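About this split. The held-out portion is used to measure sequence recovery: a designer receives only the C-alpha cells and must propose an amino acid at every position. Recovery is the fraction of positions where the proposal matches the reference. Here is one held-out target exactly as it appears in the evaluation file.
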C-alpha cells in the first residue's frame, strides 16, 4: 500500500523502549509526526532526532506528538533516548512490517553500494487520522524538523 496524502494512515501497534505498546489510535485528535530512521545513535539519525527534540515546544503548540521508528530493539532505543534526552517514544519494528506498509523500506545507496534498507522518511498524520504530508526521502536532517513545523503551520 502506498502512503497517499489525504488518505487514512495505516493503523499500527509497536513497542517503545520501555516495552509499552503504542498504537496510532492512542493519538486520535492530535497531529502525529511519524518519522522513520535507519539506526539509533548514528550521526544523521542523531541530528534528526535532536532536531525534533529541540522543536518539541513549537510542535506542542500545534497539538503534535512525535514518534520515531526504526528496526532497533528496545534496549537500543532506551540508550539512544537517554543519551540525547529525547522526549518522545522510539518504536521498534524489527521485522520492518509497519515500515514497509508506510513505504519506509526500499533501495538506498550506502558507500556507493545499492541495498535494501530503511529510508529516512516522515509521515505527518492529522487529527482525523489522514495523511497530511509524506516526505518520501528526507533531504536535510538538520532542517527536517523545521520543514515539518512549517507544514503544520500552513495546514
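Reference sequence for scoring:
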Amino acid at each position: 500500500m502506498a502512503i497517499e496524502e489525504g488518505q487514512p494512515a495505516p493503523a499500527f501497534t509497536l513497542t517503545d523502549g520501555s516495552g509499552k505498546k503504542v498504537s496510532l489510535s492512542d493519538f486520535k485528535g492530535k497531529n502525529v509526526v511519524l518519522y522513520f530512521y535507519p539506526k539509533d545513535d548514528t550521526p544523521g539519525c542523531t541530528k534528526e532526532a535532536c532536531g525534533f527534540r529541540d522543536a518539541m515546544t513549537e510542535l506542542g503548540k500545534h497539538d503534535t506528538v512525535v514518534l520515531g521508528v526504526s528496526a532497533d530493539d528496545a534496549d537500543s532505543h532506551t540508550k539512544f533516548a537517554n543519551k540525547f534526552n529525547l522526549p518522545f517514544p522510539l518504536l521498534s519494528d524489527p521485522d520492518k512490517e509497519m515500515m514497509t506498509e508506510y513505504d519506509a523500506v526500499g533501495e538506498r545507496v550506502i558507500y556507493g553500494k545499492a541495498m535494501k534498507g530503511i529510508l529516512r522518511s516522515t509521515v505527518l498524520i492529522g487529527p482525523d487520522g489522514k495523511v497530511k504530508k509524506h516526505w518520501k526521502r528526507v533531504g536535510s536532517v538538520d532542517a527536517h524538523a523545521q520543514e515539518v513545523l512549517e507544514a503544520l503551520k500552513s495546514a
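Annotator remark: The chain has one domain: 13-154.
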